[in-house]
Amino acid sequence: VSNLKSIKAAFKWIEEQFGVINILVNNAGILRDVRILGEAEVSEKVQEIIDTNFTGLVNCTHEAFQMINKSNDYGMIININSNAGHRVFFPPHGMSHNVYPGTKYAVTATTEILRQELIMQKNDKVRVTVSS
Q1: What span, in angstroms and rounded, lies between the C-alpha atoms of 84 and 86?
Q2: Which residue from 103, 48, 64 is spatially nearest to 81, judged by alpha carbons?
Q3: Contact 130/79 with Cβ under 8 angstroms?
Q4: pLDDT at residue 85, as a whole number
Q5: Mutual angle of helices 100-120 and 56-71, in 10-degree steps
Q6: Strand pairing class (75-80; 23-26)
Q7: What is the structure's pLDDT at 44?
């Protein structure tokens, strides 16, 4: 889910095979043990976490919504989150949570933003929820 071309190809395949999608479950998530303030290069691992946990969710949601909306049918978008999306725990065993909680807080906020956008569009056919 961290590659936009791959996401678009997957949704194109879904449309070709099934014609429509009614439910999307965003459940991808990764955590890498890297410290933001560590001495090693962190940018690649941090970007991988952001792209998987947050950007992929946004891109998959966009593609699924377009397909649901085009069908004029009912649909559901379920974002699987984490307790780290509501509070930051001190990591066990000296492991670093780095940007993981930030990406999960972003999932919480983005789900609420999606709900608000649906209200503004007066869309009563698509629902969005978050589950930890």
Answers
A1: 5
A2: 103
A3: yes
A4: 85
A5: 20
A6: parallel
A7: 87
- Tally: H helices and E strands in the chain: 4, 3
Question: So what's the pLDDT on residue 60?
Answer: 98
In the predicted model, what is the mean pLDDT of residues 101-130? Answer: 96
Q: How many CB atoms lie within 10 A of CB 91?
A: 15
Query: Within 10 Å of residue 93's Cβ, how many Cβ atoms?
Result: 5
Reported as a pLDDT band with limits 50, 70 and 90, residue 37 is: confident
The two three-digit tokens of residue 30, written as one number: 């990764």
Cross-strand pairs, 75: 126
Q: For the chain, how big is the Rg over CA atoms in Å?
A: 16
Burial class (CB in 10 A: 0-12, 13-18, 19+), 90: exposed
Structure tokens at 128: 């969005």
Active site positions, annotated: 100
DSSP code for 52 = I
At position 55, the amino acid (one-letter code) is T
